[in-house]
Write a structure and sequence with these properties.
6 helices; mainly alpha; SqdX protein
Length: 97
């Protein structure tokens, strides 16, 4: 994943609640890609689902998220990169990246 793609995926996650209120096609596609990512991790990986929820939807700090999920920095960073990559794949399928 390129730096630009990582930036776009993080921006979409941070602004997910605002994207849900918009009616343009790009916003709807980002929301669909985020929901696919959430559904995937809810079924297969509770740690990454927890990071999505705490860090991006509840806007907890990285330190607070790590504390709540009982993980260290290395584990958190690896998991976060994985979930951003997963979102990037779903977004790319919709032509967003």
């Amino acid at each position: 994943m390129t730096r630009e793609q990582r930036y776009k995926t993080k921006q979409a996650l941070w602004s997910y609640s605002a994207l849900q209120r918009l009616e343009d096609e790009e916003s709807r596609n980002w929301c669909d890609a985020i929901r696919q990512t959430v559904d995937y991790y809810a079924e297969f990986d509770p740690l990454r689902a927890g990071i999505l929820q705490r860090r991006y939807f509840e806007h907890a700090t990285q330190e607070k998220t790590m504390e709540l999920l009982c993980v260290g920095r290395t584990t958190f960073q690896k998991a976060q990169l994985d979930l951003l990559s997963t979102l990037a794949v779903f977004a790319a399928r919709k032509g967003l990246l």
